[in-house]
Amino acid sequence: MSAPEAIGIVGAGLVGCLAALAFAAKGYEVTLFEARPDPATVDAGQRNLRSINLAVSNRGLRALKYVDEDLATLVLEHVIPMKGRMIHDITGLKQESQLYGLNGECINSIDRSFLNDILLDELKKRNVKVHFQHKLVRMTNVDAKPTLETINAAGEIEKYVFDYAVGSDGAHSQFRYQMQKHMRMNFTQEYIDMQYMELYIPPDPNPQTKFSIDPNHLHIWPRHDFMLIALANGDGSFTSTFFSPWSLIESIKSSKEFVEFFRRNFPDALGLIGEQALKEAYESNPRGSLMQVSAYPYNSPKGKTIIIGDAAHSMVPFYGQGMNCGFEDVRVLMELVDTHKGLSQAFIEYSPARKADLDAICKLALANYHEMSSNVTNVWYLAKKKLDYTLGKWFKNKWLPLYTMVSFRDDIPYSRAIEIEQSQARTVSNLQIGIFTSIVLYGVFQVVRSYDKIRS
Ligand code: FAD
User: What is the pTM of this model?
Assistant: First the structure.
């Protein structure tokens, strides 16, 4: 029996860990490299500084199930389902629930580091080698025997040779850069004029209530140019994120001004976060930037290396699909592996098979900022949404709102979801034109009739 083929994966984030599990399950010998230290050795207080909770939805769950049904069950035991958005008005007194699904479907809030930890634990159980504090600095023989050069904590360079290599080292991927030096890979990177800052809403002091606002909604304070959102954590707290143009946050010159800004725009959220905590957050919490990255093709010409997850397609977080899409990358790639004798062919076929869908979700993610920050309070949008949902209820599976297709229908590729939405939008427009024309014709008819009456 020949030795299993060896795969080196760079980046033990969410996508890299899932990919490592998937390749290991197929019998490949997998080695994972991660620049950061092993989270098990890092002080919990320090890790929480940038712990974001994420929304995992059907596409992500389907990929987890594909890799390991028990793992998906374990994840689902630790999520907080969110059945809709809760819109907070500017007075801080009114909240309005807008359901996500046609039939009570939910997206699910989960702690990012918890998810990463259970994937890493699973890798340990399966004896997958994980080298922490091994940062990729160079890759050679990209399309032959990929050779990864890493630098460890002691500053030593180590070399590892593989049959195949996978880059899942995030938006600022070194792996992608190394591939680009050896092949014709198109690449764009675009910063969006938006910063994000994480804030913390503590658990309700009353242990009976635990949560100070409804945990089963994604809370949104939409204010057009800027917005605040909050997702529940298992301990009763919420992770809240403030999104705004850079010029806005930079125009706020002190923590006192920040508190006043919140008092004017998010009075109820200010009460939940607390003035002192908000002042401290202003002084010390990092401000993240948002960007879109796209690359093509994702594989090297002979199919020896490939990029997946944010390394291939970083998107803005407004559709809650970045990780879900990265997990879907793993499933789509593995299904190609299932249908081919060798990995190379699967890698080569992956790029054209996946491109339209990755382009589609990046576009949708950007467009969804306007939906979350503005449209959710617009009467025309809400009326159209209502019509969309009513038609969805009447014509089950024949009429599907876009959000349903993206978040709950993992069998509809992202690009197909856009096509279906466009065709449905044309039908709604035609319906609107039809209704409008009927009203006008009826009006004209009434005028002519009354004119005839006067004459006779
Ligand atoms: P990453 O998570 O970036 O992991 C890359 C890993 O590679 C890291 O561990 C890094 O340390 C390591 N690495 C980097 N360089 C090297 C190197 N040279 N050598 C070795 N290792 C290296 N997605 C959702 O699906 N739902 C959401 O609700 C959601 N909310 C979000 C909210 C915010 C504010 C943001 C910013 C993103 C959100 N996302 C969400 C997107 C999601 O976080 C990403 O899509 C996802 O983390 C991508 O995973 P990844 O493994 O590809 O990359």
Answer: 0.94
